[in-house]
Each structure stands twice: as C-alpha cells, then as structure tokens.
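Supplementary notes for students who missed Thursday's class. We covered one full example, reproduced here. Read the sequence, then the structure, then the short commentary at the end.
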Amino acid sequence: MAEKLVLVDLSAVGAIPTEEALRLKPRLTTGFSVIAEVLSELNEDHTVNRVAVTLPESFAENWFTKRISDFYRQNSAVDLRLNASNRRIDLVADGFDFAIRYSPPPEAGLDAIDLFGDEVLPVCTPGFRDRYELSGTVKSLRGIPIVHLDNRTPDPQWSGWQDWCQKFNVDGDPNSGGVRYSEISSGLQAALAGNGLVLCGITEAYDSIVGGSLVLPFGTEKRMPTGYRYRLLSVSGRRFSPIQKRFRDWVIELAIDFRQSVSELLEG
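Structure (token representation):
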C-alpha cells in the first residue's frame, strides 16, 4: 500500500505545513491559479448573454411582454431575466442591468434614457360604449358605472375622475358606485371585462385600442398629460456587454416607433 502523503502536522498551536507541503507550494499555487482562471472564464461565459431588467408589473403585462419576442428573434442566445415588480429595485445590490421606470428624473448615480410620457383618458369596451350611448357630446357620467383606481401612482399629475370631469366640464360624482381597485392595478383588465369606464394611461391601453378590444368613447381630445415619464435606467459608468448594448438600443428604437404610433392615434 502506498504511503500516505502528509501535508500538515496538527499541534497545540494549529496546523503546520510539512516539508512535503512546502516543496509542493509553488505548484499548488500555480494549480489553484489555473482553477481560478477557468472558473472566471466559465462565469463570464455564463453571464455574457445575460440581460436582467426590472420594470413595473402592469407595464410588463400590458406593454413590454407583447414586444419582447422581437428582441428574442434578433438575439436568440440572450439570457433575458425580467423582474415585474412595483418595488423600487436597487440595481447594484439586486444585480440588475437595467430598470424601466415610470418616474420623475432619477437620483444621482443613475443614467436615464427618456422613452416616452403618458396621457390619461377614458376607455371602455365597444359594447359598453353602445349600451350607455357614450360619445364626445356626453356631459354627465351619472348613472354610468365607473372604475375607480386608488393609489394608482405617486405621479401628482396622474388624473382621477374628479380632475378629468372638472377639466372637461363633465358632471360626475367622484364617489359614485362602481368597481374600486387599489395600488397596483391599471384598471385595464376591468375595462376589458366591460365593468365600466376606466381612466387609463394610453401606454398600457394602446394595444387594446388598436386591436379593437377597447375604444375611446369621448374621442382623443379629452385626455390629460401625466407628469412622470417612462425611462430606461442604468448605473452611471456601467460597462455593458455587446448583447446588453443591443438591448438598450432596441428599447430606444422601440420607444421612437411607439411615440410615433401614439401620436398618429391621438392626433390623427
């Protein structure tokens, strides 16, 4: 039986390397360095195609996920990780490359690319519009089911029903009956279900309007701009991989096209 190689002697003061260990030290050090280099290369290979993005839940559901397949077609090797959350994510601590936020200008330490703003306006299904005979000439919302959204966003310029009715001289009771949602809902699903009139952002309602599932019962003129804007955020000075740069550029081009599409819809 081969004699066992002893590398340390245990004593009252701790582990002491033997002469054999001291002779092997240069080669062991080299060996560990090679292992570290290989592990580093494997880690780089694993993350080089990663794009980690955090974005608001409703925006992810109603806008972003309907468009991301286009990026996949162009970049089939991408390891895309989407975090749909209304929690304010720390990009560094939580390991995200980008955030898409509906927000005011960001704090120091973050680079921001402006994507687009938003406009708030009433939407409903075609059937709901016809049932209640809604049109641009309607001057009262009394008796019409209204969907109320509490704490929809911290944006101080996001309009509620009281603001909208005052702006366009429409008689309406802000405390009228109807479905009431709180905090995270855009109300879009309630509108699609025919539950009532919803004041919704054009960004999230756009696809449903173009697809015919929703209509603008009072036309495009009775809309109110918001204060916050959608922005693509990243940590200042961050170096991006090629695929992360392609994702950033893709989002920018997507935003340009969307702004044009919304302008054509609202301005005619």
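Commentary. The first strand starts at residue 8 and ends at 11. The two ends are 90 Å apart (CA to CA). If anything here is unclear, bring it to office hours.
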